[in-house]
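Researcher: Sequence recovery benchmark, item below. Answer with residues only.
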C-alpha cells in the first residue's frame, strides 16, 4: 500500500466557526469484503485495495471535521449471511485495526445487514468505541430478507466475551413499523431493552438512537423529533441541499446527523434507485454542517484565494529587476479548499 499522510486528530481537524454540541457522524463504507458476492479477486478485489480506499476516505472525513466515523460493509448487503463468513470478519477486523492506529477520531463498527454480536467481537479486538445495531428489537423487512431483533444474541455476546456494555455501548437504529409513530418505536425499544436487562442481569447501554426518518421536516425547516433521554442522531435517507439546511440546527441543539449511510448502487443492485454516496460528497456535507458554509461558498472562497495568490506572484515576477535564478521552480501557494485530497490518488471515484 502507498504511504498515507498522518490522519488529523479530532483536535487538529479544522475547527468549526461556532461551538457545536451535536455530532457530525460519517458512515465509511468498506469495499466488498472476502466472502461477499462483490468480492472478485479476478477483477482486482484485494485486501490492499480495501485498505487503501478506507485510509483515503478516513483521512478526507477527519480533515472535514467529522466527529465520529461508523465503519460499515454496505457493499456486502446483497449477501444476507455474509456476517457469518470468517474471511469477511477477518478482513473487517484488519481494516478497523489499521484505521484505529491512524486516527484519534472515535470509530464504530456496523456489520450489515444485522449482526451486532459480530460487530461487538470486532470492536473488542480492534479497540473501537461503539457498535451499531440495525435492528435490536422487533422485525424489519428489507428487499431481500426479514431482519429480526438481535437483543438476545447481543446480550449473550457481551456475557460470553466478558465485556461490560458500558465499555462498548450500542447505537441502535429505530424505524417505526407501518402505522407506528417514531415515538412509539423509541418507547418500545427502551422498554424491551430495560426488561431484558433486568431478566438477564446484563443491561445494554444504548448510547445513541439513529432515526431513519426525515419526512417529518416541517415547511419552516424545523424537525419534529421524538422525546428520548438517549441522544438522537438523524439519518437523512436522501440528503439534499434543502434537507441539509433543515438538519443544520440539529448540530447546535445537541442532536447528531449521520451522513453517507445511503445505500451504494452496485451491479448486484442496479435497479436500486436510492442515491449512491461516496466520501467526497460526505466530506462536503460534513464541512458544511460543521462550519455553516455551503460547499459552493467554500469552493468559491478557495478559488478566489488561489487566483489572488497567483496574481500576486505574477506581479512580483514582473517587478523583479534581476532574472529568475536558473532552476527556480516556485509555484503558487496551494489552494486552501477544504476538499483538497492532498495528493491521494483516485479519491472520490467509484471503484
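Model:
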Amino acid at each position: 500500500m502507498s504511504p498515507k499522510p498522518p490522519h488529523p486528530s479530532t483536535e487538529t481537524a479544522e475547527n468549526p466557526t461556532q461551538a457545536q454540541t451535536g455530532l457530525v457522524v460519517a458512515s465509511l463504507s468498506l469495499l466488498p469484503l472476502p466472502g461477499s458476492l462483490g468480492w472478485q479477486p479476478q477483477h482486482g478485489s484485494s485486501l490492499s485495495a480495501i485498505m487503501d480506499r478506507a485510509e483515503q476516505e478516513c483521512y478526507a472525513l477527519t480533515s472535514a471535521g467529522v466527529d465520529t466515523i461508523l465503519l460499515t460493509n454496505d457493499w456486502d448487503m446483497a449477501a444476507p449471511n455474509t456476517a457469518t463468513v470468517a474471511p469477511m470478519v477477518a478482513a473487517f477486523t484488519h481494516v478497523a485495526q489499521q484505521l484505529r492506529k491512524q486516527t484519534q477520531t472515535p470509530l464504530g463498527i456496523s456489520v450489515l445487514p444485522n449482526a451486532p454480536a459480530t460487530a461487538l467481537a470486532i470492536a473488542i479486538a480492534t479497540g473501537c468505541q461503539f457498535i451499531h445495531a440495525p435492528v435490536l428489537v422487533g422485525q424489519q423487512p428489507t428487499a431481500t430478507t426479514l431482519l429480526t431483533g438481535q437483543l438476545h444474541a447481543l446480550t449473550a455476546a457481551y456475557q460470553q466475551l466478558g465485556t461490560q456494555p458500558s465499555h462498548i455501548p450500542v447505537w441502535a437504529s429505530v424505524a417505526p413499523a407501518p402505522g407506528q409513530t417514531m415515538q412509539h418505536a423509541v418507547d418500545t425499544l427502551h422498554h424491551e431493552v430495560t426488561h431484558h436487562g433486568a431478566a438477564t442481569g446484563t443491561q445494554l447501554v444504548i448510547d445513541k438512537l439513529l432515526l431513519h426518518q426525515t419526512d417529518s421536516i416541517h415547511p419552516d425547516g424545523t424537525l419534529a423529533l421524538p422525546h428520548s433521554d438517549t441522544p438522537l442522531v438523524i439519518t437523512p435517507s436522501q440528503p439534499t441541499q434543502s434537507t441539509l439546511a433543515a438538519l443544520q440546527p440539529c448540530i447546535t441543539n445537541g442532536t447528531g446527523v449521520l451522513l453517507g449511510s445511503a445505500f451504494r448502487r452496485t451491479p448486484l443492485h442496479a435497479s436500486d434507485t436510492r442515491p449512491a454516496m461516496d466520501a467526497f460528497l460526505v466530506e462536503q456535507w460534513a464541512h458544511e454542517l460543521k462550519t455553516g458554509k455551503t460547499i459552493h461558498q467554500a469552493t468559491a472562497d478557495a478559488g478566489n484565494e488561489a487566483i489572488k495568490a497567483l496574481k500576486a506572484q505574477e506581479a512580483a515576477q514582473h517587478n523583479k529587476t534581476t532574472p529568475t535564478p536558473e532552476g527556480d521552480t516556485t509555484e503558487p501557494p496551494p489552494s486552501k479548499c477544504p476538499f483538497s485530497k492532498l495528493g491521494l490518488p483516485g479519491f472520490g471515484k467509484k471503484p
